[in-house]
Amino acid sequence: MKFPDRCAAPIRGWRLGAKAGFTLVEVMVATSILVVVVGGAVTFMSFAGLSASGITTQNIVSGQAGLALELIQNRTRFATYMNINPAGNVLTIGIDDDYTRDSNGDGKTYNDVNHLERFMFVGVNSTNAAACSTNSLVYISNVALNSPPRKLIPKGVRNLPLYNIFTVTNGVTAVIRFGIVDVNRRDYYQAVEIQGLAVSLNRNTNNFISIKP
Q: Is the pTM of this model over 0.85?
């Protein structure tokens, strides 16, 4: 039997003790692919975050608009007096706090004005989103006592095109129209528009649908 010659040259392409590895070209290709994959993942996560932030902001401004309108409607329901300023951005209502007492001496216990409440738009009358970014809507619970204003909507209140914030019809119905914009965020432009009616149900008014509280 013939044994292989230990001194013979090794098989071409192999060396005794050599380990497998990657060439520089292979490393560069793998790195390029990894950069593309990671970049795509980062971009996707960024857009997903902006989308979620935009949805949250939209829910916030919608909630602010709805709660503000609901408060105006609830307080106006008991109003014995209703008035707006010439600019249509301040709504003042009179409230009778005690239906057992005739404060004005006219023989009726339900039509007095014991105190005035006010809903007031503060800022620039405009429909431009950027110009209205700091506008607010506030509520003053007692005008005579100089009650501190409560911010119902802290920023972004604006007029709807061709409309005032407040309009009073036949002395008993207030029409409320306004929008809210949020343009100071990086999650694109978020906005909401709201319109509603606030009706006095006090019999002192001439509204045929009114009832005595």
A: no
